[in-house]
Amino acid sequence: xxxxxxxxxxxxxxxxxxxxxxxxxxxxxxxxxxxxxxxxxxxxxxxxxxxxxxxxxxxxxxxxxxxxxxxxxxxxxxxxxxxxxxxxxxxxxxxxxx
Length: 98
Fold this sequence. Notes:
single chain; alpha+beta; two-stranded antiparallel sheet
């Protein structure tokens, strides 16, 4: 299947989004019957930890999904060794200064 390039623009004709053409095993575009927008205040979402996966149309709030953090086996081992070292150091100084 060949899918057309869908262009979404504002009232002045400024292009906001282009999907690009696609061919092969692709899904067709959904029919758009209404177009909404919301403005997310700057800094209100930590995009390193979360991604927006949708908008709740009733509340006009973003639907967030936490981005999984991959920790390699080497990083896990390093963290475990650091924790063991901290525990040994704490025992040697008699429980610390707290």
